[in-house]
Known about the structure:
Blueprint: E1 3-12, E2 19-24, E3 27-30, E4 32-37, E5 40-45, H1 49-68, H2 75-83, H3 99-108, H4 110-115, E6 117-119, E7 122-124, E8 128-130, E9 134-135, E10 156-164, E11 179-187, E12 192-200, H5 204-219, E13 234-238, H6 246-255, H7 257-268
Parallel strand pairs: 3-11
Antiparallel strand pairs: 1-12, 1-13, 2-3, 4-5, 6-7, 8-12, 9-12, 10-11
Amino acid sequence: MKTIRIEGFLIAKSPIFHGGDEKTGSETMLRRMKFFVGDKIIEIPYISGNAIRGYLRRLVMQDLLERVGYEIKNLKFYHALFSGGVLETVEEKAGTLDLELRKQIRDLLIPVSVFGFAYKNQVLEGKLVVGHALPICRELNDYLPEQTDKSIYEFLDWEFATRHEDIKTEKKEKEPKVQMIYRYEVFIPGTKFYHHFVLMDTTEIEDSFFVHMLNLWNTRNFVGGRSSTGLGEVELRYNIDNLPSAKIYLDFIQNNKDKIVALLRRLDEGK
């Protein structure tokens, strides 16, 4: 079995916000994960692999559609491509897995083959594992390949914003509108994260696609939320010296454009 592990680092170029479920009044904390450190359990903020994977999936699917000039019409198929989709219950006669269709998807829709998806009764397992991005800090020295004497708390800060009241709220004449100041926790610029991917049983074209994916990420180099307000910009540093050029994947798309469009149309029409 073929397994490729790609390790690297993300460097925050602007504050990064990746909110968790915990909110305290007007404050939103960073997402946290528990680690056993020394003789106690501590919570460390991090960036989830699922968030990174979702962002990259949207990038590569949009890129594929633009390169072949196809626009999705079926909402369920759109969600299958861009968010992974859900497995549906279908009629018994139509419930048999179409092995030939699965092979065509693997062979022609390379981003789908790597990320996987579920559409109607077809489930295609992905070949890409996306790890969590863990901040390099003193508390995680036993878990990460790079050590530091700086505590995680030195890399955290708060950003402030204003929330306006709902414009539909009825107010008495001349009564002032309410504005609420709230804040959210962020990683500061300069925070360094260890991160990794794993490719499992991939072909040369799929490895080339992975390199193209990183190139796309470099052009839109964000993670987390609130990127429209200047947050989440990162510098990518991955070792991909042993992977093939992205040109192999791009040439494949160009040479098989008609076949790819035909397959997309077939799936889009539910055939």
